[in-house]
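Quick one, C-alpha cells below. Sequence please?
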C-alpha cells in the first residue's frame, strides 16, 4: 500500500461515525468522551440513510466536541452500489421524503433477513426490528445467539451479498441521491472508493461531488489495492476535498481521519 507524509499526521477529526440511530453502538451522549480519548475534537455522525434525530442543527457542540450532522446514503451507480457522505445536513423536504422511504424499506428488508437467518440457522435472534436496522445489527445478534458464527463469520457466510440470507434493498440512483444531498448538505463526498468492485468507476463518479474519502481503515484484499496516491490524483484534477474517518460501528473512533492540512479546507466549507 502506497503512503505519503500526510498519512503519518495524526487525524484532527473523524468524519465517518455510526451510532445507534442506524447500526452503530455509540450514542450521542457517549461521543464527547470517546472523541476525547481518541484525541480528536471534531466528529461527523454519518448514520446510514438517516439524519440523527437528536442532532438539532447541522453543526453543534457537546462536551467541547464539535459534532457535524451527516448522513451516509447508498445509491445505485450502474452495476455497483456506492455510498455518499453528506455533511452539515439540513432537513430539506426532499431529503426527509427520500430517507423516510428508504427507512421503511430498510425495516421491511431487515425483518425479512432476520426471518431468513432464523429459518436457515434454526435459531431465534434477539433483535429489535426498528428504523435504522442494518446488517451489523443482525451480525451482532447472530454472534450473540447459539449459532456457530461470530460477527465476522456472520457477514462472510450468512448475510454477505453472496450468502444465502442476503436480501437486497431498494436504493435511489446516483443522480437522485446526489441531487437531494446537494440541496441539503454543505459537502458531499464518496465514501471508501476501494471497497467497491470497480474503484476506477467509483472515482469517476466522485469527480461530480465535492470530496472523496482519502483516509479509511481498509482491511484484507481492499487494503492491498488501496492506493491513496490514486485518490489524491483524482482529488487534485477534480478539485475535491480529502476527507475520511474510521467508519466506526463500535465505540472506537479516531482510528483514521484527515490531518489538519486536509481537514481545514473541509471545515471552512462546512462552517
Amino acid at each position: 500500500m502506497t503512503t505519503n507524509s500526510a498519512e503519518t499526521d495524526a487525524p484532527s477529526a473523524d468524519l465517518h461515525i455510526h451510532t445507534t440511530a442506524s447500526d452503530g453502538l455509540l450514542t450521542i451522549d457517549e461521543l464527547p468522551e470517546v472523541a476525547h480519548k481518541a484525541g480528536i475534537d471534531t466528529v461527523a455522525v454519518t448514520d446510514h440513510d438517516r439524519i440523527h434525530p437528536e442532532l438539532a442543527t447541522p453543526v453543534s457542540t457537546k462536551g467541547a466536541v464539535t459534532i457535524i450532522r451527516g448522513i451516509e446514503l447508498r445509491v445505485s451507480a450502474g452495476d455497483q452500489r456506492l455510498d455518499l457522505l453528506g455533511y452539515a445536513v439540513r432537513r430539506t423536504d426532499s431529503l426527509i421524503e427520500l430517507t423516510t422511504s428508504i427507512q421503511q424499506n430498510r425495516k421491511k428488508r431487515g425483518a425479512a433477513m432476520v426471518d431468513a437467518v432464523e429459518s436457515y440457522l434454526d435459531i431465534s435472534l434477539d433483535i429489535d426490528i426498528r428504523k435504522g436496522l442494518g446488517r451489523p445489527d443482525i451480525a451482532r445478534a447472530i454472534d450473540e445467539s447459539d449459532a456457530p458464527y461470530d460477527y465476522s463469520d456472520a457477514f462472510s457466510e450468512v448475510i454477505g451479498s453472496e450468502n444465502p440470507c442476503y436480501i437486497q434493498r431498494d436504493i435511489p440512483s446516483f443522480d437522485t441521491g446526489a441531487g437531494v444531498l446537494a440541496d441539503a448538505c454543505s459537502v458531499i463526498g464518496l465514501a471508501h472508493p476501494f471497497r467497491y468492485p470497480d474503484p476506477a468507476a467509483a472515482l469517476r463518479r466522485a469527480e461530480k461531488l465535492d470530496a472523496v474519502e482519502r483516509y479509511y481503515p481498509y482491511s484484507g484484499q481492499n487494503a492491498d489495492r488501496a492506493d491513496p496516491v490514486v485518490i489524491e490524483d483524482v482529488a487534485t484534477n477534480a478539485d475535491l476535498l480529502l476527507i475520511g474517518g474510521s467508519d466506526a460501528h463500535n465505540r472506537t473512533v479516531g482510528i483514521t481521519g484527515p490531518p489538519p492540512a486536509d481537514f481545514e479546507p473541509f471545515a471552512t466549507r462546512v462552517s
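The beta strands are 14-17, 42-45, 59-62, 65-77, 80-87, 187-190, 211-215, 241-244. The two ends are 33 Å apart (CA to CA).
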